[in-house]
Amino acid sequence: MKLYDSALAPNPRRVRIFLAEKGLEIEKVPVDLAKAENRSPEFLAKNPLGGVPVLELDDGTCLAETVAICRYFEETRPDPPLMGVDALDRARVEMWNRRMEFEVFLPIAQVFRNTHDFFKGRIPQVPAWGEVCREAAEKRLAWLDEVLGERPFIAGERFTIADITALCGIDFGRVTGIRIGSDQKNLARWHEAVSGRPSAGA
Amino acid sequence: MKLYDSALAPNPRRVRIFLAEKGLEIEKVPVDLAKAENRSPEFLAKNPLGGVPVLELDDGTCLAETVAICRYFEETRPDPPLMGVDALDRARVEMWNRRMEFEVFLPIAQVFRNTHDFFKGRIPQVPAWGEVCREAAEKRLAWLDEVLGERPFIAGERFTIADITALCGIDFGRVTGIRIGSDQKNLARWHEAVSGRPSAGA
Fold first, then answer.
1. Which of A108, A126, B142, B196 is the most exposed place for a label (fewest CB within 10 A)?
2. Cis preceding linkage at A53, omega within 30
3. pLDDT, chain B, mean
4. Does residue A165 lie within any of the structural domains?
């Protein structure tokens, strides 16, 4: 089994942290996004959409999409649980992970895609959309600060995939100047705690 | 238990179809989005982000996010399975559902949000971004037509949540003129099949 990986992109980091929290080590194959290796015919045969990460199983089966890969490991290595512990909790963690994806990670990624030089000439950029997403992301960080005033982790008392998604999204925001506000004490406390886990460096 | 619902929005339809496929009937409470009922303090207490659908359990617990609600029902009423039948299959269905969300449903929704009069004055619209999303959605429908040349349903031999996501996304595209191309025979065959299931009218 191997993971097609990139040190630069935020999605592969989500899987690496997830694996580290599970205590799993698997072979990683770096994909050079700057050289568009993810657009090569060999890579597109593994994932026709060209995204990383991709998990290749020993029989050649390829799984794309970050959370699909995480789900595979949650199913095959349940401990420690990172996606909930019973029916309602699994639904709650799904809700919070999706909120972190759609309200934090995605707008921050859209700012990068639509305003950063890396994507100039690679994709059609709409800077005005990047600015709408920047405002949306900053508003959501303020909301997240309130949420984290009520509990230690995003989905409750326990570290979950929702914390991983938020951490990777927020850290990726640095590239485009999106940061935790100096008045966002709860968010800063949470960020320090999750960044201090050994998995954060994976 | 009750579902806060809207007949106009595509996300609540995903949950209604999911429930119909499971053979579940639950109380539905209509939320008038045109009158911004989803922005009322009462509704924001159920979902601070203001989105529909929301599932309210009998103890008052509220679950937001379409797929989180579906997961709750998949866990509590496993038959028929709509999110996979074993570890690898659940990961594959997750992959395909996410591809349908991020590559089909989301760009189609972005075309609506950024170009349609409904959202004028409600949110900051960036029509140029809507046009980028329109091209992306049309390109993905062509890809989906190829995918459906190889199998009856999006994730394989079985109807799953990925079909529901794609159906609700594609049907929502009609409002902004996004349609299955006359040359997309596989996609048209699939669309006729899934639209013909009793659940599609839910």
1. B196
2. yes
3. 97
4. yes
